[in-house]
Design goal:
It is a single chain. The chain is of the alpha+beta class. Helices cover 31% and strands 31% of the residues. The protein has seven helices and 15 strands. The strands form three sheets. An eight-stranded mixed beta sheet has the order 4-3-5-6-7-8-9-10, sandwiched between helices. It is globular.
């Protein structure tokens, strides 16, 4: 699936004339020919190799299955970045059962990186070859690096809670989309905090980050499998510190 999605996404990336349709009547949530083509290509692979499994995809919704397994696909997570030419978008592939996602991949076709986690494995394959994924060790929030996608984060209330954590960390960077979770799994940063997410946005990152030793919950410390508010941390200590601030801020 990653192979065919790579072909379809790179076919249109940084190519002039790419048209982005807007899914929203207010605001801007783009979708392109590349999004649709990549998901259809992945669905074709599943139809041939896993015909009894269900599929949940961002562009073409839910398809029933009988096996108890569901493949969760986001053909381009970060379409805003994709149409801007930045290399922080990715193809998200994961599989879940009734307990949640247990295997996932964050694929960045342009850089040539694949971050994989689950079933006892956690590794990245890219320009530096194949290496194990391992999240950072514990450190005070004042020494932590945090990533998110939008400075607005979510609602005004959610932004206020996010800002309470932001004021405690050493550095905050924006615009990462799924690549932020890949960097967390690779031991480059300590936190990713976001809101307003969908299931197809989070399930592959959850599998990869947890396999690398990280902790992922919602802002109340519960499961984040269905999206919404996401708190991903490199380890239990950093997670507890950030969670405490979010909860104290009313979240």
């Amino acid at each position: 699936m990653a192979d065919v999605a790579q072909v379809e996404t790179l076919r249109h990336f940084r190519v002039s004339g790419l048209v982005a349709d807007n899914k929203w009547s207010v605001g801007f949530d783009p979708v392109t020919e590349a999004d649709r083509a990549a998901e259809l290509a992945m669905r074709k692979v599943l139809a041939e190799m896993r015909p009894d499994d269900a599929i949940l995809g961002e562009e073409f919704g839910y398809s029933e299955g009988t096996s108890g397994l569901t493949w969760v696909l986001d053909p381009i997570d970060g379409t805003r970045g994709y149409i801007s030419g930045t290399p922080t978008w990715g193809v998200l592939i994961s599989v879940r059962d009734e307990t949640g996602p247990f295997f996932g991949m964050i694929c960045q076709p342009y850089i040539g990186e694949r971050f994989v986690g689950g079933l006892g494995e956690a590794w990245v394959d890219g320009p530096h070859g194949r290496n194990d994924l391992k999240t950072r060790t514990a450190r005070p929030l004042s020494e932590c690096v945090m990533l998110s996608t939008f400075p607005e984060v979510g609602t005004p209330v959610e932004k206020a809670a996010f800002d309470a954590v932001r004021k405690q960390v050493q550095l905050t960077r924006y615009g990462m989309d799924c690549y932020g979770y890949a960097l967390l799994a690779a031991g480059q940063v300590d936190l990713v905090i976001e809101a307003g997410l969908q299931a197809y946005d989070v399930q592959a990152p959850i599998a990869v980050v947890q396999a690398a030793g990280g902790v992922v919950t919602d802002w109340r410390g519960g499961p984040a499998h269905e999206g919404g508010r996401m708190l991903a941390a490199a380890n239990a200590d950093v997670h507890a510190a950030a969670l405490g601030i979010l909860q104290q801020a009313g979240e």
